Amino acid sequence: MDLIRKFVEQVIEKSDYTELDKYYLYNHVLHLVGKCEKECQEASIIDVKDALVEQAVLNQKIDDLSSSKDSLGCELMDLITPIPSVLNQRFNETYAQDKKRAIADFYELSKANDYVKTKAIAKNIYFKTPTDYGNLEITINLSKPEKDPKQIALAKKLAPSGYPLCQLCMENEGYYGRVDHPARTNHRIVRFNLGEEVWGFQYSPYAYFNEHCIFLDGKHEPMVISKETFSNLLEIVEKFPGYFAGSNADLPIVGGSILTHEHYQGGRHVFAMEEAPVEKSFRFAGFENVSAGIVKWPMSVIRLNGSDKAELVALSAKILDSWRKYSDEKVNVKAFDGDVLHHTITPIARMKNGNYELDLVLRDNQTSEEYPDGIFHPHKDVQHIKKENIGLIEVMGLAILPPRLKDELTEVGKHILGTSNEMKEYHRVWADEIKQNHPEATAENITEIVNQETGRVFARVLEDAGVYKRNKQGQEAFMRFVENVGLE
After folding, report:
1. Is the pLDDT of residue 467 over 90?
2. Between β-strands 263-267 and 336-337, what pairing exists: parallel, antiparallel or unpaired?
3. Rounded to an integer, what distance in angstroms lies between the CA atom of residue 426 and that of residue 272?
4. Is 283 helix (H, G, I), strand (E, B) or coil?
């Protein structure tokens, strides 16, 4: 059986098409790909799709650019994807009977139609490192394809499109893509209401953890952390059982990569921060039904837990308002420079044993002459491992490290073993420390040693990002802020 016939057979098996549609489907794929008499050696529909895309390049139906190949691949996989109205109708019908089943069905579709890039994600390097804060998770992100020089050159020649306004806008659903914007032909968004507003629920194509999803505002509006944020997050964890929901901060340096479109992230994953214990408990005045405390974590986290959603929202808003205005020069905490705001919160919500739980991570985006990248940002001596912003996912204990480290850490290992290597000079101080501290290093255990030391650097990265340091002075200052909010 040739590739096209095999693909058509699988489309019929996995979609609303029937055997009566086979000639229609064959001709449609033939038009997109060109003549293909190659026998099918592939098993999965995604592998067959990939083979068809390569055949289209050979047939000169598309350019040999990653953007062109991705666009065709998405168009082919759109054949097994229900149109948005049908998908939403089915989701809502199932949701009315079984919320978890509806969510699981949507996730399975998002993997089956290759919107969630499971083959690419499998390339990522992942390991855990035991630390004083629990098992931190480390990923070296190898899943996102790098743009080739020809594609970059073409993108520079394009006039700004302005459509869609960003990669989180609803208008991405079904978009064919272009050189400077990813194809989303097989992309679907589940609509749901948050208060009076229409929001969208989708999965992340290059997921960093299990069922990594995005909740996005139906309107293109800037991210803002406010009382409404806390209410929205708690409502989301009600609507999507088993999922956490969190927001990146709304300020540069401490915020996420997209601050222009209001959105949250979520998923079915337990991070180290969730398992970290409360090490100092207290209750805030006027909120006696809410358990509160400082979490044993490298960053500065206040955990709230209670059964009354409105009470948690009100207390979170009070803490945010207090933090926005709070300064403490003894520990370099400063709320404003003139009209420039420095303080915000990274919030994370979850359901815990039937109660609502909110972790409020205090953030400060000041810079200084000594720390031009950010006072509470990874400092220079750890930037050889991580120099990017510490966003929501890292805050919770999962490092997203750049692809360069895959080869660079191998060279570090060779340096430690004293063998010929091409180690980058910026790793030298760190590598020499590892070499001194691990005389037992051998070819058999060097990967494990370097991985564990990388995880320890990540712990330091999080400590740098923590506003109140993990020492007596820092923790006393943390309590001064808590008291400023108002204790019982």
Report:
1. yes
2. unpaired
3. 29
4. coil
Task: Note the pLDDT of residue 159.
Answer: 65
Q: Is 210 exposed, middle or buried (0-12, 13-18, 19+ CB in 10 A)?
A: exposed
Say which DSSP state 327 is in.
-
- Residue 113 burial by Cβ neighbours in a 10 Å radius (0-12, 13-18, 19+): buried
Cβ 29 vs Cβ 40: under 8 Å = no
Type of residue found at 288: E
Cα–Cα distance between 454 and 386 in angstroms, integer?
Answer: 10
What is the rounded distance in angstroms from the CA atom of residue 472 to the CA atom of residue 478? 10
pLDDT digits (tens, 9 = 90+) for 320-375: 999 999 999 999 999 999 889 999 999 999 999 999 999 999 999 999 999 999 99
- Is residue 214 classed as helix, strand or coil in its secondary structure? strand
**pTM (2 d.p.):** 0.94
Backbone φ, ψ for residue 471 (5° rounding)? -135, 175
pLDDT at position 477 is 98
Helix axes 428-437, 446-465, angle to 10 degrees: 120
d(CA 57, CA 76): 14
Q: In one letter, which amino acid is 323?
A: W
pLDDT in tens, 189-204: 999 999 889 999 999 9
Among 134, 124, 123, smallest CA distance to 397 is for: 134
User: How long is the chain?
Assistant: 488
